[in-house]
Amino acid sequence: LKAGSMFELRAQRPLSTRPHAISGAMSAGADLDAWLLGAIKSEGQLMRFPAPSVPGGEVCLRLFQGDPAQLPGSDSGGVLWEAAEVLARWLCERGRSELLPPGAAALELGCGCGLVALALAALGAEVVATDGQPRVVYGVAAANVAANRGALRALVHLRVLRWGDEADDAMLREMVIGPLVASAGPSLVVGADLLYDPEGRAGLAVLFRRLAVLRVLDEFKVILAWQVRHRAAEDAFFSGLTDVFESREVHAEAVLDLFSDSGASPVIIVEMTLRSSAKS
Fold first, then answer.
1. Looking at the predicted structure, is the pLDDT value of residue 216 above 90?
2. What is the Cα–Cα distance from 24 to 214, expressed in whole angstroms?
3. For the whole model, what pTM was predicted?
4. In sequence order, which ranges of 215-270 are alpha helices (DSSP H)?
5. Contact, 241 vs 247, CB < 8 A?
6. How many helices (H) and strands (E) would you count in the chain?
7. Model confidence over 25-37: pLDDT tens digits?
8. Nearest by Cα to 245 from 266, 216, 224, 268
9. Helix or strand or coil: residue 29?
């Protein structure tokens, strides 16, 4: 990238990582299938994010990733992608009070290994973390919730949710709002790297419209982070929702990208807020 670019190239810095047996996560009480020991990498990464709003000024999480070969139907859902790390850090820097009103919760779509949901829960936000692959949800994500239980200041509920499913509104409401214990409903929807294919973008747009209608609170927003791959198609996704949401880019930074000719590509974070006309 050229000097003076709007993006700061962030290399894949070495994480403070040391061996940490997955059996340690299991002892925290996760109810997981026997295949899990072989499906999750046996070493976790210790991830630290500045978080001025929490005691100690830092969120510290132990993150396990899945072995794609052992997760049929999902060759990427159980691993950590750059956009999720960028989004988790950005959320931690802001804190719960800036992200959600009192009494509200968050919903994560495509949670994968669960880093973003864990970061929100460490900030004190109750979260419903969802993914379309049951073995990702109840395997990798569940292991990470169990391993980080001591660092979480609010509950993380795990659910399987496929965007393209034709679930009726009552079922969707029960899946998204039903698990919540201390919150009235989700006012924040988050997701990382959800815009990678046309089918996914179409299903996601429909789901956002439905969630906006089913919302419990008037204050409702979506925060998405993704590593740019098809910018025209990604811009078109937001343009197609302008009747319901106002969208603005709130963060951009370049990260290493082995699939890019330049060796780097930007991760963008966009905040979508509900238009006044859509609240009636």
1. no
2. 39
3. 0.85
4. 231-239
5. yes
6. 10, 11
7. 333 333 444 444 4
8. 224
9. coil
pLDDT of residue 24: 35
Sign of the Cα torsion 41, 42, 43, 45 reads: positive
Distance CA 210, CA 212 (A): 5
φ, ψ for residue 147, nearest 5 deg? -70, -25
User: For residue 180, what are its two tokens?
Assistant: 């919540």
For the chain, state the CA radius of gyration.
Answer: 18
CB 168 within 8 A of CB 138: no
Q: What spatial distance separates the first Cα and last Cα of the chain, rounded to whole Å?
A: 45
Per 3-state DSSP, the chain is made up of helix, strand and coil in percentages (nearest 5) of 35, 25, 40
- 3-state DSSP call for residue 152? coil
Q: Which residues contact 78 (CB under 8 A, 6 or more apart)?
A: 39, 40, 65, 66, 67, 68, 71, 112, 113, 136, 139, 140
